[in-house]
């Protein structure tokens, strides 16, 4: 399953894709989830979960740099690079409070991101 409407995002010289399902501005506040895929997969791995969560929450799912429809990075990336990328894209997108759901490498990126900027985190999954 593939999500539609992904947009190209860039941070720290890295490029990825962000798939967002959010209610329009002015709607009642909803919880927000950030879904991070593991190594060797893409946003498609979490697409069904994205759609289910989007019924009750704002959801942000990534194709991390070098995965899915995201372009290949100019160098080999470390977990901290993915974490910094996610944090910067979320901050630029105005996402300030969220629950992170990670799979495999996505979990490592999530925890690394939390250590860099814990302010936005409500809970890890």
From TrEMBL:
Stretches assigned to the AB hydrolase-1 domain: 34-111
Gene3D superfamilies xrefs: alpha/beta hydrolase (3.40.50.1820)
InterPro entries: AB_hydrolase_1, AB_hydrolase_fold
SUPFAM superfamilies according to UniProt: alpha/beta-Hydrolases (SSF53474)
Name of the protein described by the UniProt record: AB hydrolase-1 domain-containing protein
Organism for this UniProt entry: Pseudarthrobacter scleromae
